Structure formats: structure tokens, C-alpha cells
């Protein structure tokens, strides 16, 4: 049975037959939910774990998974009505600040998933050496938010001291490998390709250097009208995620092995384990404390501030408004 498309009763004929012989109707058909996602462990790790273990099916949900390349494309699709909810990285702090989407669930802190790589022949030994150089990345993403923080730390400005080459991440990595640019800001698992094809390349710094002062969080958002009209479904999503998240943390080796075998066969298991370590995960109870004390809101707002500045968002919606912690706090008790 495909774990992404589960129903407990396959046809109305079967249900009718069971009813006719006095057998109880076991369950209603699962409710479909169109879920957009990025294929990186920091974003889809809990989702695939929940589908594998049946955590979402137990909540009566049929997650229809739709893969995208960037969070920007995810939000554009959701705003256009082709998605109900999405799971993404730093972009979760962007469009909701424009009034386009409600954030209701966090996956993790992308502790070291964003990385800055330099070529062996670049002469770049520190962030200060980036001055006058070209850096490829995907604008408006986790990698871009991280790169901005690196440049700030070196007193460098985009457009003035360095040139940002905006490309889809696959093309950004290709440019780096070919030697067209001396540096690339990426997110895992693109580091695997760099290690395999860019001989001598090295990672200059990753996002962990700026934690927790500049934490980048990823999580879930829903289309505004969908969120308002489906509070029970949102609760069911959270309940399924909570079970999946705690299974991922309590049975990590088992869960990552299943994830690698079924969803990331092209990534060696050792590399996938390292990618898992590149994010900072919390148990459901630990997340509850961070929802309740405002830590999550603060983290979201930090990245929103970046987007407000770089994307010139006028009259931005603050994280305290676009993030709704109540459903999670109602479900996960202290």
C-alpha cells in the first residue's frame, strides 16, 4: 500500500457489502490534503516518517505530496490555490509577513543546513576574502538568509562589496563546480554534489556559527482561507506530526535508515545521518516550551526582518500575528 494514499476502505462497494452482512463500517475515507514540500531532510523528514509509521493515516489524513524546488515556488503555488499547506525552510518567514499564509507548526532549526563553499583555487580563506567576489545562491531562501548573515559579520554588503548571482540551486551548484563562480551558498543535500564533483572545495562556514542569535527555522504554513475553514484538519496534521517527530527522535537510526532507503536512495546513509545532524530537532514537549515563551516568534521575526529589508515588504505582518501557536499548545500539554 502506498503510504501517501491510504484509505481504510477502498470502495463504496466493499463498505456496502460489509454493512449488508452486519459488519460495522470501520472508518470513513481519509481526507485528502495537498501538501507542498522541498525534498531535503530538514523539511520532509518528519513527513515521510509520519507516512511510513502511519501517524497521519491514524488521524484520517491522506497527504498528497507535491515536490517543489524552492520555498518561493511553494508559496506561489499555495497562494494560487493548488496547495492547501506546505512545509519549507526560511521562506516560511517571508510570504506570511505579506499576509499570504498562516504559520502553525515548526519542524526544526536549520542549525547547519545552510553552508558556504569555496573553490580550492579561489584564494578565499575567510569571509573577508569574499570582497569583490561572485557568490551563487538562490535569492530569498534559507541559503540567502544565511549568506546575508555571513556578509554582515565581515562588514560586507550585497551589491556593493560582493555580487550575488541568483540561480536555482541546481544551477548555482553547477556554476560553482564549473568554476564560473568561486563560492556558493547552498543547503544540504547539495553539499553532497559539491563534495563529489568539485575537487578540493571546502566549506568555509555553516549556519551553526550564528546560532542561536540568528536561528533559521523551517516549518508549515497554510493558505489563509484553508486555515480559517479547517481548524480540525490543522489539529489532525499537528497530531500526526507530533507522533512522527517524537518517533524520529526516539528511533533515529531506524527512521533515518527507512528515509534513506525509500526517499533518498541517491544519498549514502552516512551522508544522510550527517544531514540530520545539521538540523537542531526538539521533542514535542521542548517545542511546546519554545512556542509558549515566545522563542519561536522571535526566531521567525528575525528572518522576517531580513525579508522586509531585502524584498522591500511594505506594512509587514509581524510574526506575532502570522504565527498561531494556539493549536499546538492545545494539543501538546505541559
TrEMBL record:
Alphabetical list of Gene3D superfamilies matching this protein: Periplasmic binding protein-like II
Extent of the signal sequence: 1-29
Top-rank taxon: Bacteria
Keyword Signal on entry: yes
Entry keyword annotation includes Signal: yes
Principal subcellular localization: periplasm
Localisation per UniProt entry: Periplasm
All residue ranges annotated as the Solute-binding protein family 3/N-terminal domain in the record: 32-245
PANTHER family: ALIPHATIC SULFONATES-BINDING PROTEIN-RELATED, TAURINE-BINDING PERIPLASMIC PROTEIN
This protein's name: ABC transporter substrate-binding protein
Amino acid at each position: 500500500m502506498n503510504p501517501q494514499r491510504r484509505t481504510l476502505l477502498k470502495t463504496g462497494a466493499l463498505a456496502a457489502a460489509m454493512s449488508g452482512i452486519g459488519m460495522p463500517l470501520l472508518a470513513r475515507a481519509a481526507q485528502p490534503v495537498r501538501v507542498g514540500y522541498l525534498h531535503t531532510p530538514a523539511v520532509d523528514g518528519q513527513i515521510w516518517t509520519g507516512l511510513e509509521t502511519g501517524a497521519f493515516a491514524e488521524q484520517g489524513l491522506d497527504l498528497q505530496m507535491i515536490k517543489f524546488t524552492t520555498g518561493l515556488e511553494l508559496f506561489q503555488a499555495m497562494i494560487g490555490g493548488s496547495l492547501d499547506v506546505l512545509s519549507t525552510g526560511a521562506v516560511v518567514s517571508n510570504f506570511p509577513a505579506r499576509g499570504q499564509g498562516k504559520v502553525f507548526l515548526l519542524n526544526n532549526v536549520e542549525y547547519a543546513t545552510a553552508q558556504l563553499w569555496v573553490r580550492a583555487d579561489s584564494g578565499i580563506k575567510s569571509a573577508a576574502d569574499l570582497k569583490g567576489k561572485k557568490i551563487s545562491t538562490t535569492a530569498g531562501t534559507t541559503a540567502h538568509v544565511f549568506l546575508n548573515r555571513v556578509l554582515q559579520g565581515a562588514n560586507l554588503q550585497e551589491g556593493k562589496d560582493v555580487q550575488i548571482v541568483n540561480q536555482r540551486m541546481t544551477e548555482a551548484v553547477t556554476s560553482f563546480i564549473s568554476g564560473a563562480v568561486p563560492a556558493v551558498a547552498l543547503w544540504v543535500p547539495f553539499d553532497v554534489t559539491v563534495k563529489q564533483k568539485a575537487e578540493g572545495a571546502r566549506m568555509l562556514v555553516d549556519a551553526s556559527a550564528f546560532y542561536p542569535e540568528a536561528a533559521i527555522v523551517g516549518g508549515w504554513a497554510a493558505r489563509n482561507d484553508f486555515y480559517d475553514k479547517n481548524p480540525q484538519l490543522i489539529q489532525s496534521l499537528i497530531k500526526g506530526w507530533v507522533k512522527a517527530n517524537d518517533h524520529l527522535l526516539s528511533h533515529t537510526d531506524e527512521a533515518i535508515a527507512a528515509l534513506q532507503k525509500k526517499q533518498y536512495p541517491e544519498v549514502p546513509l552516512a551522508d544522510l545521518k550527517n544531514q540530520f545532524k545539521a538540523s537542531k530537532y526538539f521533542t514535542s514537549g521542548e517545542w511546546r516550551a519554545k512556542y509558549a515563551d515566545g522563542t519561536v516568534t522571535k526566531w521567525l521575526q528575525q528572518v522576517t526582518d531580513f525579508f522586509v529589508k531585502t524584498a522591500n515588504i511594505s506594512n509587514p505582518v509581524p510574526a506575532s500575528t502570522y504565527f498561531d501557536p494556539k493549536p499546538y499548545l492545545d494539543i501538546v500539554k505541559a
